[in-house]
Amino acid sequence: xxxxxxxxxxxxxxxxxxxxxxxxxxxxxxxxxxxxxxxxxxxxxxxxxxxxxxxxxxxxxxxxxxxxxxxxxxxxxxxxxxxxxxxxxxxxxxxxxxxxxxxxxxxxxxxxxxxxxxxxxxxxxxxxxxxxxxxxxxxxxxxxxxxxxxxxxxxxxxxxxxxxxxxxxxxxxxxxxxx
Amino acid sequence: xxxxxxxxxxxxxxxxxxxxxxxxxxxxxxxxxxxxxxxxxxxxxxxxxxxxxxxxxxxxxxxxxxxxxxxxxxxxxxxxxxxxxxxxxxxxxxxxxxxxxxxxxxxxxxxxxxxxxxxxxxxxxxxxxxxxxxxxxxxxxxxxxxxxxxxxxxxxxxxxxxxxxxxxxxxxxxxxxxxxxxxxxxxxxxxxxxxxxxxxxxxxxxxxxxxxxxxxxxxxxxxxxxxxxxxxxxxxxxxxxxxxxxxxxxxxxxxxxxxxxxxxxxxxxxxxxxxxxxxxxxxxxxxxxxxxxxxxxxxxxxxxxxxxxxxxxxxxxxxxxxxxxxxxxxxxxxxxxxx
Lengths: 179, 339
Fold this sequence. Notes:
The complex is a heterodimer of chains A (179) and B (339).
Chain A: H1 3-11, H2 16-37, H3 39-56, H4 65-86, H5 97-105, H6 118-128, H7 131-141, H8 147-154, H9 158-176
Chain B: H1 5-9, H2 15-23, H3 49-58, H4 65-76, E1 88-90, E2 111-118, E3 123-130, E4 150-161, E5 164-179, E6 182-189, E7 199-213, E8 216-232, E9 242-243, E10 256-261, E11 264-269, E12 283-288, E13 293-297, E14 308-312, E15 315-318, E16 327-332, E17 335-338
């Protein structure tokens, strides 16, 4: 079913909207959440996400339902992960998030950036990248894809992916610093 | 403070950037693209491998796919005459013109496929690409790592459906050599979504070399243009798969069949569905008719890229094409498939 039709179902408050979303994007959304939370928590998180999407459309009318759902699921997954960590529950992420965080931060302390308006800095940074590098960066740090997965998806070598990530990370920190 | 503040900061990314990633999609198979030229001792067991291994072994010139093909023709039951076909290259970043006669010298910027064959799961070919006037240095720069040579950035295959170009495969080089301004590339494209048919467009993307940067090996661009080649895949021979003849029973009680393709292995049940055996985690043993065996596990780094170069849970690809006629049986985690 086309995104527009699914969104119309949400606006009509037709519960078919949720099952249509699940059918079209369920696997993708589970994959996004599973990398952050692990399988078990991801399935629970997804249920919360479907409810969140149901509650937010309307008034939201996303141009891309898939992208919108990914943002909701990623945001909820990280919230749940932080909750789990606060409750001293060991993370069961499908990917090593500590490693991913460390590489993105370049060893910098986030406190130095706490007052930044990320909605501007992040989007200015992404806009500044060439499309291929932007996709590589987003796949790695937004979707937590591995380097071999990105290499395969984009049909470029793993070393080229690493090289692009290195340059993108440097640029990202430069943008956060306002350089 | 949150534990992953930098990662969470990306939640601010505009939906258009998320959408861009979702729409940049891709083939069904997730593969690890093979970039290394591997001279392996497996040549005795994997006879066909010898052709490709010679690339690394002789060091002097890259063995043409046709020669490789000639030496294995008898074993593989392929046509007597290696096909020469109409090859038309069209412009991408570099404009090239139709070049049906492969004996004609290439014009600057032109590329052509000089030989090729396919399998159910792969595509192999030799490409010549003339980069005269494209700013290439006379030889590799001083910071180039030894034994890494020239690399093409990517090989992509497209088909046109209803006027729209769709990705149908991607891959990389088995080896690349340079003869003056001519770059010769032996390629494989293992990440195909289904058996290739009909007219396709092959895109070759950029040329680089390898150097150290920030304690990591990184590609350094030499030429960042692209070239496209139009091909009719039906003009090329297909190396056939073999299918196991015994019918071992899977955990779901259904009979299993292993497809032994020159490019790799997959197992399906009697309903044609994947058998549910995680091939990435399985120990796979190939028993040759001459009594030798080769075994390994994709997850095991010592065999990764030596025997199995890429894979998913449902498909494992060989590092180099295999002469399937030489194989007597394949055992996957103790389940034997005979031929």
